[in-house]
Amino acid sequence: MAVREGKKKDAGLSGQTAEESAAAGWTAVQPREYHIDGVRGRPVLAGAGFMLELSDEATMEIRFPADAPAYRDSNLTVVFPALVDGEPVPCAISVEALEDHFGAYSEDLEGWMRAFDAGRPRIEAVAREHLQISNGTPVLLKSGHFPPGNVAG
């Protein structure tokens, strides 16, 4: 099919112009663009679904202060702080995850807090992994973040 005068041919395989494709009800799809953005001063490849390989000197320092966790009724989570390169980053775990994997009972605030305290090392270890994956953005841990069948008592 020849390109009509004054009309640009689509990049697709249909051989139609952009106007003909639009008239037929097709939507033009733009190719995905990848670009480098920064989060906390570190490069992140946007749109790719993975982090760039960072050198040893660019490794994040992640610490968890011993601050008491807080229950948030608005989203049924227990919130705890993390420090990523000295900056506070909120982390949370759902009460469902505390019930499924850490032995807490439903609708028991004190039980959720006890389960968090008892499982804190494991919870913080999983939060650390997700902070590294997300390049230091806030983390919400849910039941699926923990392997099935491992209930701390």
Give the key terms.
5-stranded mixed sheet; two-stranded antiparallel ribbon; Double Stranded RNA Binding Domain; 153 residues; disordered N terminus; globular; alpha+beta
The fraction of residues assigned to DSSP E strands is: 15-25%
> Could you state the CATH homologous superfamily of the largest domain?
Shew3726-like
CATH architecture of the largest domain: 2-Layer Sandwich
Based on DSSP secondary structure assignment, what is the total number of beta strands?
A: 7
What does the overall shape look like? globular
Structural class: alpha+beta
Q: Describe the sheet with the most strands.
A: 5 strands, mixed
CATH fold category name of the largest domain? Double Stranded RNA Binding Domain
Quick one: CATH class of the largest domain?
Answer: Alpha Beta
Instruction: Note the gap between the termini.
Output: 71 Å
Question: How is this fold's topology laid out?
Answer:
Layout: H1 18-23, E1 35-39, E2 42-46, E3 62-63, E4 70-72, E5 77-84, E6 87-94, H2 95-102, H3 109-133, E7 139-141
Describe the protein's architecture and organization.
This protein has 153 residues and is α+β, with helices and mostly antiparallel strands. The chain has two domains: 8-55, no CATH class; 60-145, Shew3726-like (Double Stranded RNA Binding Domain), CATH 3.30.160.140. Helices cover 25% and strands 22% of the residues. It contains three helices and seven strands, in the order αββββββααβ. It has helices spanning 18-23, 95-102, 109-133, and strands at residues 35-39, 42-46, 62-63, 70-72, 77-84, 87-94, 139-141. The strands form two sheets. Strands 3, 4, 5, 6 and 7 form a five-stranded mixed sheet that branches. The longest helix is centred in the C-terminal third of the chain and has 25 residues, at 109-133.
